[in-house]
Amino acid sequence: MKRSEVVRQLRALGVRPGGVLLVHTSFRAIRPIDGGPLGLIAALREALGPAGTLAMPSWTGDDEAPFDPRTTPATEDLGATADLFWRQPGVVRSDHLQAFAAIGPGAEAVVKTLLPLPPHTRESPVGRVHDLDGQVLLLGVGHDADTSLHLAELMAHVPYGVARHCTVMQDGKPTRIDYSENDHCCRRFALADDWLRAEGLQAEGPVGHGMARLFRAQDVVRLALERLHRDPFVFLHGRGEGCADCDLARAGRPAGLIQSPG
Q1: What are the percentages of helix, strand and coil residues in the chain, rounded to 5?
Q2: How does pLDDT run across 236-261, given as a tens digit for each residue?
């Protein structure tokens, strides 16, 4: 598919020129596009225009090695587009392993945060997108990839989490930090489709050769908070449903720092 057609699809979906756009994507689900993942990135930037800011996740899956924003690859789980994006000229990347990358006038405001632990706090890049009234584009993926729902969990102080750790440089030496993260299987994040559709707040349509969802970060967080305040376990499978990830989260301690470095 030609890049110009992808731009037309993005604008028809409702991508706001001049806005902030957080993209989670699987290129495999929407290909082929002229230019491959770089052609997709160019189309996203063109749809946003010169005043727009494009952001993507860019974190690493390595908990043992200190993060270097100039050389550390993004985890393979994020796909080829995200790992190519942070390497492009003009793209700004977070200085910590829970990294996002962005380009545009608001790039530094989105990604230049202190290390957020757990990863998706209000002070994290995904929190910045929310506070800047950014849009979220799920491109060839579902809400199980929607980091804004993890932000909602933390804002609701959900009573679950799983033990995680990372390694940072402190006083010139690698230092381990232990924390609890609001992680689970994320399959019940699909509930957000029904919540957004019921209020007409999610645009859906073709982009490339796949399907896309577009919505405001503030809308999905607001709707999730309403449900989480009624049932803080709404995103977890119930006991006895056979989901080991959700059972582990339910048995763990709430998300937060467990041990300070040193």
Answers
A1: 35, 20, 40
A2: 999 989 999 999 999 999 999 985 44
